[in-house]
Backbone:
């Protein structure tokens, strides 16, 4: 009898501690003295499609807007292809390197011939996307990463199917989709010209057409333009998570950057500033962020070689960048 009473007391105590933790921890995070922790959590959650509820349950929209506004310290502009004046030797070498820190692990892929880069598109658009590996295999790709984003909410409902691309998709010089919206008439572009020069930043539709973009998608923000880092203060304001980015060195070499981050594996992920710094370390002169979080996927020689954080495996996406 005494053991039963003791067991019940322990259970009651544990339940009480659990309920107390649920109440106290959010209050400490969102209303306590730890502003940096709160801001990181807010920016991380609000820049993903599926985890906004973590923040909206505890903070009013006005406070969320204030934090997001104060965290956004990213310069804008457009890359100038004149800085890239390389002679393409059509070197078919692809190099793979591991990178790591105490917060993330990742891989850098160096593709020496930039004219090999193409945009792969889900065969099911506009109904739904496909996984990076599916699109890669359909295109006989050697290496591929997820590319542009997609519209996750339709008529107030979350779809998550990756079927409605955000922004534009350009393939073989043709604009296949144009869902871009902007107040200034400029579109976020990550695109390659016919001779393999990467342009990133904001452009009008006429500028995109006149630049001769052969392959391109929309996402943001640009991380490096003409050798100048765009994030000069803070961490970029998008929190820490898995990241996908693309860049180019002066010699034309294209860099695919994929960074994993998940609490399950003891990693918190990378900020936009982290991704920018890796690109700078590799001598990149133009670089841009691609869709990250659950979308982050790296395919190489027939298999996925990173650790996507989507609990169901690879996420369905509308587009990939690949080389074959």
Residues:
């Amino acid at each position: 009898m005494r053991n039963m009473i003791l067991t019940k007391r322990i259970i009651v105590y544990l339940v009480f501690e659990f309920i107390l933790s649920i109440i106290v921890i959010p209050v400490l995070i969102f209303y306590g003295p730890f502003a940096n922790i709160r801001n990181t959590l807010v920016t991380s959650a609000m820049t993903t499609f599926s985890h906004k509820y973590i923040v909206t349950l505890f903070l009013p929209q006005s406070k969320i807007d204030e934090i997001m506004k104060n965290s956004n310290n990213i310069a804008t502009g457009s890359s100038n292809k004149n800085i890239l004046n390389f002679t393409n030797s059509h070197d078919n070498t692809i190099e793979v390197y591991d990178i790591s820190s105490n917060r993330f692990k990742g891989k850098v892929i160096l593709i020496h011939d930039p004219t090999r880069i193409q945009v792969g598109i889900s065969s099911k658009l506009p109904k739904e996307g496909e996984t990076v590996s599916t699109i890669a295999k359909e295109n006989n790709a050697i290496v591929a990463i997820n590319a542009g984003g997609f519209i996750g909410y339709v008529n107030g409902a979350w779809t998550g199917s990756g079927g409605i691309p955000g922004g534009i998709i350009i393939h073989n010089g043709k604009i296949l989709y144009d869902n871009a919206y902007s107040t200034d008439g400029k579109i976020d572009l990550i695109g390659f010209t016919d001779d393999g020069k990467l342009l990133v930043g904001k452009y009008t539709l006429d500028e995109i057409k006149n630049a001769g973009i052969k392959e391109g998608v929309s996402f943001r923000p640009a991380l490096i333009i003409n050798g100048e880092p765009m994030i000069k203060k803070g961490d970029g304001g998008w929190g820490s998570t898995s990241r996908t980015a693309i860049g180019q060195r002066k010699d034309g070499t294209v860099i695919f950057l994929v960074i994993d981050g998940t609490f399950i594996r003891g990693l918190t992920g990378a900020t936009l500033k982290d991704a920018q710094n890796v690109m700078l370390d590799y001598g990149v002169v133009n670089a841009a962020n691609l869709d990250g979080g659950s979308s982050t996927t790296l395919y190489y020689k027939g298999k996925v070689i990173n650790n996507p954080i989507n609990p169901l495996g690879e996420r369905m996406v509308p587009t990939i960048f690949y080389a074959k």
Q: What stands out?
A: The two ends are 72 Å apart (CA to CA).
